[in-house]
Amino acid sequence: MTTAPVMTVDAAIVAELEAIMNEPGSVLTGVSSRANRARVPAPFPLHRWAEHMPAVVVLPRTAEQVSEIIKLANRVKIPVVPRAGGTGLNDGAVPLRGGIMVDVKRMNQIHEVDLADRTVTVGPGINMLKLNEELKKYGVFYPDTPASYPCSLVGGRIACSGWSLLGSRFGHTRDLVVSFEIVLPTGEIIRVGDGGGKKVRKSSTGYHLKHLFMGHQGTLGIVTEATLELVPRPEAEFAAFFAFDDFGNAHRTVYGIVTSGIATLAGTVLFDEKKIEYLRRDDEAFIPMPPWVNSIVATALYGTKPEVREASKLLMDLGRKEGGRYTGDEMAVGDWASRHDRYANPLHGRLKDGTVAPMSWHCEDASLNWTVIPKVREEWTAIADRYIDKFGIFDNWGIYCYTNAAYKPWGDYLAEIDIGIWEEKLDDESWAGWVDFKSEIAKVSLKYGGSITACHGSTRAGDAELVSEEMGGGWDVMLKIKRTLDPNNIMNPGKQMLDQAYES
Amino acid sequence: MRRFVYMQQYVRPEATRVSDGVVIRLKHYEVDPELMGQQFDQQDMPAWDTLRIVDDRNDHLNWMHEHFADETLVAGQEAELDLGAGQPSGEPYPTLSEVSARHPKPILPY
User: Fold this and answer.
1) Which residues in chain B (10-39) have CB-CB distances under 8 A to chain A?
2) So what's the ipTM on this one?
């Protein structure tokens, strides 16, 4: 069963939605309201914008309203697509079959700050930066820090099972969300955690349903409330960047740092040669660097001041041990701060003649073990070169590798190759080429025993077709879960090849 | 109160080239306007506005640090880039114990 696209809704449906919402301005049918919610920052086929428009947008404030909307959608068989910040670098919040878009931005309240049991309970529409501004007065901190920290929302972080820049110290979204409330695809409102208990972090009761719904990409319901971890606000941070003339030495340096046992280590970032080349174009920290620099290792510590101060001495030794050169205090402070806000970067692509073109950013992410990074880097770069030559509208912005494991910095890495795309030039042929490009990149990740996504999700064409391959026997289990929980296939239909759940 | 002098604000100072694609002007790196021209129309900005944007960038980064920790520590050391690339230690990396009789050969990093 493939849910039919619903690109318009009649007046009777709008009237029912307005009755549920009971608030002026909470049901939007205008073109601008719908068009502005059709895409996310990731590359988008502009020439096919109309195919991704929701039919109507609703802005609920309560779980009960969300539940009633979903019950209505089931009754009349209209797709439902949830949307939080709309900042994802995959297509979770992009409607593939129109329908009702449930925008949760008005569900942005802080319901409770519990300093005794160390949790904060919020609506899914709150942003981490705004939340932490409020939490600062209590001396606590919610350390979920994606590159979209100033603009992404808690609901989206749960929907994509987000990755945090400081995750190796404090955990990632799945670790930092203690429990959450979700409206199921049939309208029931449930709460999921490790077991029961809104504020219980570890349980052995029943199945761990939090982990089933974490990363649901809007295909298994809509999150309406979340109880989050509070950690002591760090007294001190310390960042250091080291430059190398050889990627292998930088790669070895990362290994030395992450296996050193430094408890305050929050993360490391490895920059490859193409990334340095890209940053030399317009990044004030990299433009003045001498030509021999072709790789960087960035690293940061968070904790109490005595801990960080002592660990920083060891970190400085480890950063230099394999030939690293310290890049100075100014870069350490400035560039590390900018890691929390990569969406503020200007997106200057380059054409083959060196001129600048307006390009949007595609970040093809993967989870890879440390041992395979050099080989994957070679293959990804070769693929990018081939597609750049063929189409002339893509640009290789290089590779970052971030520590990926929660509470421990070793083992696997969020490796991403950033590709610029000149969206205005896309047509059906080049879009198909782009999907093939993505797919080739993702297949390399699988070939080397990795996962095709560490943080964005796999809902885009080019990734989605490979989910079954990565999941193996687990794919059939996913299909059974989807069909059982969403019998009418109304929740974000068309994503991740989940339509297969309804075949036969 | 400072006087607004049109010529000071709108006659852009000469840029200094720092690399193939970048120049520096008004304390600020900028992409060579020659590279921008084909796709991006260049606008006339008064000098004070350019300087405001440059200064705001630093304010923004400081503001961002304040979200994550009470204090930002630094190594207090000079940049070493002028020294040229460093030399790797040459040590076996990392030093792992010998294969024991009970375990298969470990996967070595290098």
Assistant:
1) 18-22, 29-31, 35-39
2) 0.90
Cα angle at A44 between A26 and A155, to 5 degrees?
Answer: 45
CATH number of A348-465: 3.30.300.330
Nearest Cα neighbor of A144 from A178, A93, A183, A110 is A178
CA–CA distance from B94 to each of A250, A421, B66 (Å)? 14, 40, 37
- Tell me if B81 and A290 make a contact (CB, 8 A cut-off): yes
Beta strands at A80-83 and B22-25: parallel, antiparallel or unpaired: unpaired
Residue ranges per structural domain of chain A: 11-105, 110-232, 236-344, 348-465
Cα B78 to Cα B83: distance, rounded to the nearest angstrom:
11
- Please check whether the domain covering A11-105 is classified as CATH 1.10.10.410: no
From residue B17, how far is each of A157, A488, B27, B28 by CA, in Å?
A: 43, 62, 13, 12
Instruction: Tell me whether A284 touches chain B (CB under 8 Å).
Output: yes
- HSE-CB for B48 with a 13 A CA cutoff: 8
* Better-predicted residue by pLDDT, B66 or B80: B80
CATH number for region A236-344: 3.30.70.3450
- Those residues with Cβ within 8 angstroms of residue A31's Cβ, 6 or more apart along the chain or in another chain: none
Condensed to tens digits (0 to 9), the pLDDT of residues A220-249 reads 999 999 999 999 999 999 999 999 999 999
Residue count (chain B): 110
CB A489, CB A502: distance < 8 Å? yes
